[in-house]
Design goal:
The protein is α/β, with parallel strands linked by helices. The protein has one domain. The protein is built from six helices and eleven strands. Strands 1, 4, 5, 6, 9, 10 and 11 form a seven-stranded mixed sheet that branches. The chain has a two-stranded antiparallel ribbon with strand order 2-3. Helix 1 packs antiparallel against helix 2 and helix 1 packs antiparallel against helix 5. The chain starts with a helix and ends with a helix.
Length: 241
């Protein structure tokens, strides 16, 4: 997948989120499955060995199941697990908050750190996708849109700090992070009153998601708004294990 194709996958996942319940895993089958398929395809292309020795566990791919690792401290179901000769060689987590983000922003960040420590202490690398709209709907319990929240750019400061840290010395830091800030909002979508109207708008008007115009200066750990560069780098890192 290139960036344009990845944005289309994010749109499909967003639409599935709007037409199902927030707790449904159907949106994950779309997003996780496409990432899993892409990563294994890239690994196989880069791998000089002809035998198919790599495999993936994920929603929406292969057997369609997540894999549960023992973890250093607690058992953990990984979003995407990469195997080489049936041994785990990497874990990938994917976070794509589609609504009500601001009240949970610190939780998403802290969960990433805790999950990474639990995985990396089991002696294999951990990679992380963080995908979020720069304007995001706030839904009430009935699915009505109460307001559109601006992604608070101060939220990005913690990711900037993280990006300049040292992964070898900090077991809570993912080996590589994709920060993907997208634009799903315009004057027409703002008129949507609930999940169904927003779904209708994006589906019937064939509107596409776009990359955010916000710019950030990240260190080596984080790749910003470049899916193809990120997926190629982690594929190569996995092959080097």
């Amino acid at each position: 997948m290139n960036n344009s194709e990845f944005l289309h996958v994010l749109k499909k996942s967003f639409l599935k989120y709007l037409e199902t319940s927030p707790q449904s895993n159907e949106k994950l089958k779309i997003l996780h499955g496409e990432i899993a398929s892409d990563i294994i395809e890239r690994i196989e292309k880069l791998n000089n060995i002809k035998e198919n020795i790599y495999s993936v566990h994920s929603y929406g791919y292969g057997k369609g199941k997540e894999y549960t690792i023992k973890g250093r401290y607690t058992e953990k179901r990984l979003d995407i697990t990469i195997f080489k000769n049936k041994n785990i060689v990497a874990g990938i987590s994917v976070k794509y908050p589609m609504g009500n983000y601001n009240q949970n922003s610190n939780n998403y960040f802290e969960l990433m750190l805790g999950e990474t420590a639990n995985v990396k202490c089991d002696d294999f690398p951990h990679f992380h996708f963080f995908i979020v709209p720069d304007k995001i709907p706030y839904f009430d319990k009935e699915g009505n849109i109460k307001k559109w929240e601006d992604f608070n750019l101060n939220h990005m400061k913690k990711y900037e700090n993280l990006s300049n840290d040292k992964t070898k010395e900090r077991l809570h830091i993912p080996n590589k992070v994709l920060v993907y800030l997208i634009d799903i909002h315009n004057e027409i979508s703002r008129k949507s009153k609930n999940r169904e109207e927003l779904r209708y708008y994006y589906k019937e008007n064939k509107c596409e998601l776009k990359l955010s115009k916000h710019k950030f200066d990240f260190g080596n750990i984080i790749i910003y708004n470049d899916y193809e560069k990120y997926i190629n780098e982690i594929a190569q890192m996995i092959l080097n294990i």
